[in-house]
Amino acid sequence: xxxxxxxxxxxxxxxxxxxxxxxxxxxxxxxxxxxxxxxxxxxxxxxxxxxxxxxxxxxxxxxxxxxxxxxxxxxxxxxxxxxxxxxxxxxxxxxxxxxxxxxxxxxxxxxxxxxxxxxxxxxxxxxxxxxxxxxxxxxxxxxxxxxxxxxxxxxxxxxxxxxxxxxxxxxxxxxxxxxxxxxxxxxxxxxxxxxxxxxxxxxxxxxxxxxxxxxxxxxxxxxxxxxxxxxxxxxxxxxxxxxxxxxxxxxxxxxxxxxxxxxxxxxxxxxxxxxxxxxxxxxxxxxxxxxxxxxxxxxxxxxxxxxxxxxxxxxxxxxxxxxxxxxxxxxxxxxxxxxxxxxxxxxxxxxxxxxxxxxxxxxxxxxxxxxxxxxxxxxxxxxxxxxxxxxxxxxxxxxxxxxxxxxxxxxxxxxxxxxxxxxxxxxxxxxxxxxxxxxxxxxxxxxxxxxxxxxxxxxxxxxxxxxxxxxxxxxxxxxxxxxxxxxxxxxxxxxxxxxxxxxxxxxxxxxxxxxxxxxxxxxxxxxxxxxxxxxxxxxxxxxxxxxxxxxxxxxxxxxxxxxxxxxxxxxxxxxxxxxxxxxxxxxxxxxxxxxxxxxxxxxxxxxxxxxxxxxxxxxxxxxxxxxxxxxxxxxxxxxxxxxxxxxxxxxxxxxxxxxxxxxxxxxxxxxxxxxxxxxxxxxxxxxxxxxxxxxxxxxxxxxxxxxxxxxxxxxxxxxxxxxxxxxxxxxxxxxxxxxxxxxxxxxxxxxxxxxxxxxxxxxxxxxxxxxxxxxxxxxx
Length: 780
What we know:
This protein has 780 residues and is of the alpha/beta class. Helix content is 20%, strand content 18%. The chain is built from 17 helices and 29 strands. The strands form seven sheets. Strands 12-13-16-17-18-19-20-21 form an eight-stranded parallel beta barrel. The chain has a six-stranded antiparallel sheet with strand order 22-23-24-29-26-27, covered by helices on one side. Helix 11 (478-488) crosses helix 12 and helix 15 packs parallel to helix 16.
């Protein structure tokens, strides 16, 4: 410390004289505010948040309720619009120049503070007559400033309602939005020095939303309710998918309305996917380190509002209009038979660690919402993002489940993919599959009926939990990704692991009544290489992120086909396209739930960037002109044909695991594996190095019956996967497996619009081209 006075100031939790204004009571927008005579009635402690309704004597108004355990008092802050450019430029949509919505001006409109004096079970509440939808608001919460015990109340900071249904404005993170003096010269104690400057001019406001607007009724909506086994998931970014689409009106590109546009939906329907998995659409904020570099968070894994659709993706407005626009998008997708799954981030918030901003939960009750270390100044971080929500706490669990139910019942979504789900499954410290979060989900009459996908790991000790989540849950299966990538780059020591992954990963999921569709199979995801980059680069090229190429994984399991990056070499380009066909075909023929990443079917590239989380530009956006290139159009045609084949044949989307046993006297089994010699695999074969594997799927032995009770039967197929760099001979198995085989897919062909149609006799020796998949149907 530079002086005894400054040291004393730190110990007292106040700012020393650094040129900051001394503010015993916060000064708002240049002058102290004395609230006019705004009536506030007792209201009700439930539901939480701001709910417009009819109050006593038929008077309309809004009930406000905020859980703030340990707080000494709470003020509701109401804002008008004078002097504020927040909201939407109706002529130009929600995009600012940076594409992330409106930037708040220094003026935030007149603020009126209304004390909430009613307290019920730690919930501060009140009904304010005359407050209607469109009203912007926030909270100021009073209490002790004692970071050493985890208490970080600071009434100078305007806080976003955790239950806000809409948010107007953007987070820019100037020093005023930090509860502590961000730029305190001794950074090791900076988080202990309270900053008394008002943050209201610099932070977004919650918006009161009409819950029952006539155009938001769901009477005309029909959920697709696609069974898990029949699902094909398509992971996409609302903005990136629509930003460059030439047939979407420019003012709708990058928005919910753009995704609802017929041109966007037409592509999804032609492709044949059954569900879109949207990268985060909860209101999110941008990290300070990105803003300092002139960048912003593109992916959105930095949530701050769990009930509000991200305002930057709205074309119609940001003072409540985004809610209706999101619902209209869901309706349009449902009408096309496509489900909507949200990627949700309940494991941490945008407030980061102790040096992060005070935007919402930290200022409401830091100790109640976050996991703290024994040194309560510090946060337990199982997420790698600075903090972890304390899901064991009842009010935190309530926040999450209320949010989930809201998105299902009022916003119409069909399921969720939980980012770093292992962090949610931790009890006090360890991951616990009987944890409060998982137990509540399992018994909830709404949530247990929707699609639940876990990213089954976090960054904490014991966080890797692939295969461990209970029934009702499916999981991102990274062991599938790794095995398929390694096989096609020639890095698997044998084919044991590949056999499990192709047939539903029974070694991971065949317990507790789980089914093959517990495995979400994927080769690529939003984080990592695109499919085209996976066969074009072996090393990451993340220089554009401004982090010295240190960010992003180095474990890419990629093969560049002999040349790093883009090339004009026709041989290398052809080989790369074949590898893309191999990877897509393997994925869509595997048992489980396939997940594609938007643009992989078109050959989208990120130039080798495997961590494009901060690239809101052409690096991340889909280039729709790829469809004009015959080579990439052929890749789209193959992908659509494989998905159609999957939909047409139940043997490719089984609801139960294979038994591998004969079910009839002729010895035919539901699943059989073959060497290139046409002989069934022995134990020794599984442990031997191999580049060729044959997988026989019997359509005669599918367990289960259709809706009318009729046993399900189908064609039988033989898939031959050959990762060798030279053609291989393969003997087609004879009786009882087949008499003849018809070639349905051959990935060595550039043109993929039609079925090859070549027929071979059983026992014949066929030539499988180098690095190719052949799918053969058993012919009668």
